Inverse folding.
């Protein structure tokens, strides 16, 4: 009868040790320094565009959705119809999600923005700017174009895109 008592004591001791030391993972590497987030708080135009790039490269549709205002519009010129066409936020989210699922490697590069434009942080103002982009999907020929953005940053919030107009 002594054996069950010893077993219970050992089990209780192990359980206590696990509870007290449960946060330690012997297989996890030690952290060196402070970990920095890959996401910005989008308090400037440049930070918002960096989040845009990161969302595309990580194919993260939830983070991409955070960039779009509820009244977001995407517009482009339809060469076949010889007119501008476009869609709203819901359709953009669906098409971007399909894009993210269709390609394993996506790279997006912004250029042509001045440091002054990237540093804009003015709240409660509509900001218009134009950026050159290069979108690379897998190993295909890059898609090149210009995007005209209208963005807004409500007081105490982050920048969000109201209008994205593709200009090839």
């Amino acid at each position: 009868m002594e054996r069950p008592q010893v077993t219970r004591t050992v089990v209780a001791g192990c359980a206590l040790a696990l509870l007290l030391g449960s946060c330690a993972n012997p297989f996890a590497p030690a952290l060196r320094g402070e970990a920095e987030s890959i996401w910005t708080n989008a308090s400037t135009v440049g930070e918002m565009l960096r989040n845009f790039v990161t969302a595309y490269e990580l194919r993260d549709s939830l983070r991409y959705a955070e960039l779009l205002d509820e009244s977001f519009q995407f517009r482009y010129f339809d060469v076949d119809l010889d007119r501008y066409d476009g869609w709203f936020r819901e359709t953009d989210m669906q098409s971007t999600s399909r894009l993210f699922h269709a390609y394993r490697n996506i790279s997006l590069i912004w250029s042509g923005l001045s440091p002054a434009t990237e540093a804009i942080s003015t709240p409660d103002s509509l900001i218009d700017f134009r950026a050159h982009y290069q979108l690379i999907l897998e190993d295909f020929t890059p898609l090149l174009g210009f995007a005209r953005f209208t963005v807004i940053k409500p007081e105490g919030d982050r920048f969000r895109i109201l209008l994205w107009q593709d200009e090839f």
Summary: The chain has a mean pLDDT of 86. The CA atoms of residues 134 and 144 lie 5 Å apart. The longest helix spans residues 2-20.
